[in-house]
Amino acid sequence: MSATRTLINPAQLNRTVYRTVLILVVAAFTLVFLGPLYLLVTDGLKGTTEAIQTPPTFYPHHVQLSNYSQAWDRLSISQLLLNTLWYAFGALAFQLVFDIGAAYSLSKLRPVLGNAILGLMLATLMIPAMVLVVPQYLTVLDLPLLHLNLLNSPWAIWLPSVANAFNIYLLKRFFDSVPQELLDSAAIDGAGPLRTLLSIVLPMSRPIIGVVSIFALVNVWKDFLWPLLAEPDPTKQTLNAGIYSLSLGVPQNILIAAAAISAVPTVLFFLFFQRNIMSGLTAGSLKG
Fold it and tell me: Which of 4, 38, 82, 191 is the most exposed place for a label (fewest CB within 10 A)?
């Protein structure tokens, strides 16, 4: 019995339905992710009355580009931006030194109870960050043993960012994929653990080090509560905390424009380094 012939091929119909559903889903997720960014940018272009009216408008009826220049001047964004860069790259330097050392030790030096130590580190990822704010604040207020007050200094932001369990895990997973034969050959040639790390392991680990560096910079950049507590002086705070501290008496449209400016660096960071992030996260997942 021959198959029934129709004007539209069933296979072609299935492909059309699939493509239609795919386009709708992609469009929906695009609106969900880009919608808030669009509103953030456009609200910063509105006048004061239009920015606070209810219901809100979806585009500025009278564009005011001067809002962004006013936000830059009134909220001292240039100074806050320099502060954020200083804190972010300082935290990055400490994280690279200590996290790479910890991951290399757990991966290749095999200390006693190394797996238990790694398990305890990973267990801290399940603790909400808000729970750690009070003990962290008390620690930097009176540093144990040294009895130093680190508040209102860069150390209050740098030191708490060092112990990053997620970055240590990423680095350890990559170091596990480094062939042990290379390390044995270096040991035969007389290289110690530190020389092996610097000369062999780190040059092979550029992808994952790039990912860890991006995470370290973004974590400091987007943090709000801790810089607000650790740096009481608004002129020394990070971008997000400083905008909040200096926002008293600033119109809402100017404040929204400042928030849009603060979001630009992180968005550009992702656009430029998204390929590095994905390649670094998958690097070391397969051993060869």
Answer: 4
